[in-house]
Write a structure and sequence with these properties.
This protein has no helices and 24 strands. It is mainly β and 285 residues long.
């Protein structure tokens, strides 16, 4: 993990277990080679598979050009999660589970957006008819500036939009479940703040009156922010709400908040002052 100058890894016959994140952050790694006598793993063109060639386990981050997944493989999406230059996924027309539209992966019915390649850039408009956005679907799409969400979307899972340059989430005004204000994602009634885009350049943000809940990972990795004003009326702060807000220095939790979720302030390393209300009943780990 994080061995930035590593070019090749040779896995001997005796290795039986490799952790899923073992090679994350190895930016220059282009080749994983597995001994032919290994009973747990194999490799093709430097890419790691299970021995039966049913699961693609890991594509080295330094791989370039095009790669064709062999017939018979059921691959896990995390296998390509750190391929920062990946711009297109192309699905065979006969595949029974998935399709691709403009290089983005969807379920076969084009109702669930599963995975956006991390090298996509600029503005991305989710097609009409898509209903669901999967967890981490856009995570690490660090060159995306805006994502447009159609009125057909009914469910957005947590941690869908961890993109460091994303400055606006724009929701179609006819959407019945979500809305956006100044590029920030809320539920339709603006009771829950779901996601503040981490690429917004503002240093100060005032959460609108009427918001009662700050959602999971709502401000995660928002390193531009030095101050967040939380209004009276907020009662709940979810898991990882302010995770890794690297320049946030102080925070006042208003009266009325009863719970703060796990990891809410984890890795917000400049946070020197937290003010808690009397109403607070629990703080997560």
């Amino acid at each position: 993990h994080g061995c930035n100058n590593l070019k090749k890894v040779i896995i001997s016959y005796c290795v039986t277990d490799i952790d899923i994140s073992a090679f994350d952050g190895c930016d220059e790694l282009t080749d994983i080679s597995v001994d032919s006598d290994n009973t747990s793993y194999t490799s093709i063109d430097g890419v790691l598979f299970d021995k039966n060639m049913e699961t693609l386990l890991y594509c080295p981050e330094g791989k370039s050009g095009a790669f064709t997944i062999p017939e018979g493989v059921t691959f896990t999406l995390d296998a390509f999660d750190c391929c920062d230059e990946l711009t297109d996924i192309i699905v065979d027309a006969n595949d029974a589970s998935y399709i691709s539209i403009d290089g983005v992966l969807f379920d076969k019915n084009a109702e669930t957006l599963v995975f956006c390649p991390r090298g996509k850039s600029g503005i991305y408009t989710i097609p009409d008819g898509v209903k669901n956005i999967e967890t981490t679907a856009f995570s690490n799409c660090n060159d995306l500036a805006k994502i447009k969400i159609p009125d057909s979307i009914t469910n957005i899972k947590d941690d869908a939009f961890n993109c460091e340059k994303l400055n606006a989430l724009i929701v179609d005004p006819n959407n019945a479940f979500y809305t956006s204000k100044d590029g920030v994602l809320f539920d339709k009634d603006m009771k829950t703040l779901y996601r503040y885009p981490e690429g917004k350049a503002a240093k100060l943000y005032t959460i609108p009156d009427g918001v009662t809940s700050i959602g999971e990972s709502a401000f995660a990795f928002c390193n531009h922010l030095t101050s967040i004003s939380i209004p009276e009326g907020v009662t709940n702060i979810e898991t990882n709400a302010f995770y890794s807000c690297g320049n946030l220095t102080n925070l006042v939790i208003p009266e009325g908040v009863t719970g703060i979720g796990i990891g809410a302030f984890c890795y917000s390393n400049e946070l020197t002052t937290l003010t808690f209300p009397k109403s607070l009943e629990y703080i997560g780990m």
